[in-house]
Amino acid sequence: MQHSNEPGMHYHHQEVPAECFKQHEAVIAFQRLSQLVTDYVLGNSGSIVPPASWTMGLATTNVGSGGGTDYARNSAWNAAVSTTNINEIGSTTAAGYARQTIAKSINQGAIDWGTSTFDNTFATGGQSSTADQVTFGAFSGAPDPNGANSWVLTDGSTLNAGNPYCAGDTAATRTFANGDTEKVTATLKAG
Amino acid sequence: MPFYELIYETGAVSVANYADDAECLRAVSAHHDRAKTGVPALTTPDNEPNRPSERIARVLKYDVHPVEYGTGQEIAVDEVKSKLNEALTNLEHDGTVRVPDLAAAVRDMSSPLVSLKDRKSMHDSNYKMQEAEELSSDRWDNNAA
Question: pTM score, two decimals?
Answer without folding.
Answer: 0.89
